[in-house]
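Per your request, structure below.
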């Protein structure tokens, strides 16, 4: 488990994730031409939107990575 400081909406926050999730989030951000902070901010924005689940950010990031990996394996 690794804790990192991320800036979201101009505010610093600490997020704890396993190394495998940090690695995949970094790869997903790079593939989209985004910084890690920008990708996490985008995910957080969706999480806190009215239709979002509003759940824990670390959990939301894990689910995001899982969904992206599943999409790569079996594209729609």
């Amino acid at each position: 488990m690794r804790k990192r400081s991320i800036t979201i909406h101009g505010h610093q926050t600490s997020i704890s994730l396993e190394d495998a999730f940090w690695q995949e989030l970094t790869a997903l951000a790079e593939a989209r031409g985004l910084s890690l902070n920008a990708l996490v901010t985008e995910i957080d924005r969706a999480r806190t939107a009215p239709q979002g689940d509003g759940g824990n950010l670390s959990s939301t990031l894990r689910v995001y990575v899982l969904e992206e990996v599943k999409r790569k394996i079996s594209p729609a």
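The chain is about 55% helix and 20% strand.

Regards,
D.
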